[in-house]
Amino acid sequence: MKTGTLYIVPTPIGNLNDITLRALEVLRSVDVIAAEDTRHSGVLLNHFGIESKLWAVHEHNERQKSEAIVQRIQEGQSIALISDAGTPLISDPGYPLVNACRSAGVPVVALPGACAAITALSASGLPTDRFLFCGFLSPKQQARLSALEALQDETATMVFYEAPRRILDTLTAVLDAFGPERQVVIGREITKQFETYLSGTVAEVLEKVAADANQQRGEIVLMIAGAPANDHNIPAEALQLLSLLSAELPPKKAAKIVASHYHLRANDLYKHTL
Ligand code: SAM
Predict the structure, then answer these.
(1) Is-above-0.70 flag for pTM?
(2) Is 190 near ligand 1, meaning CB less than 6 Å away?
(3) Which ranges carry the Tetrapyrrole methylase domain (predicted)?
């Protein structure tokens, strides 16, 4: 018997036109659409005249449902997984299901599409060559501050999802953890009528958000620039390796190898060989 496929299908994060032709085609053709919230997704599917059967698969039942879904796919049915908005599994349910499908050798096909983190990052003006997606911070003050402090020396751009009611507290914690001068960008209501981007130092953005209640509403992606890759960020093992390699190799080559291994800048390492 031919097995079916699990499709991971992104849906819009605000603007309904941001669904792809392929997503519509897959949603129309599958036997079942597994949705995080069937009522919420029902509105989207109605809008596009999609009548496929809906199943509720959310964080509270997805472990149990995964088994049934894997079995259906093995029996030849195809199933699409969608979340309330954006790409499933990205701060959304789906991981246990995809993991179960992969373990059972069931085909998984992910469609590209809307994702708030990637959309915000591409418009942020912050470096995009390396970024760290951190999802939601803890709502608890101390846990949130500790998580941010642990990222103080991170050199990649950091991307967070945040609830509007917590954005002021979170920006205050960012200021405490990274200092007032670190660059941040807030992307709000992306693809929607009141889309805005605010950028500047943490202190500047905090002041703007505090002064404007509208900036404390809607959906928010918070991005924090990485720390400059300076001496302070070069781990001791990287310097040791550099010293060993530069005894054998031209300094530029040694710096390049260590830089690529530790995700550092070759120039910063090269200075240590002089
Ligand atoms: N899976 C989704 C994705 O691909 O972006 C994210 C789901 S997560 C539960 C929801 C969070 O994503 C929101 O709290 C907000 O931080 C962010 N988000 C979703 N849509 C957004 C939008 N239109 N503008 C800004 N942030 C958004």
Answers:
(1) yes
(2) yes
(3) 5-205
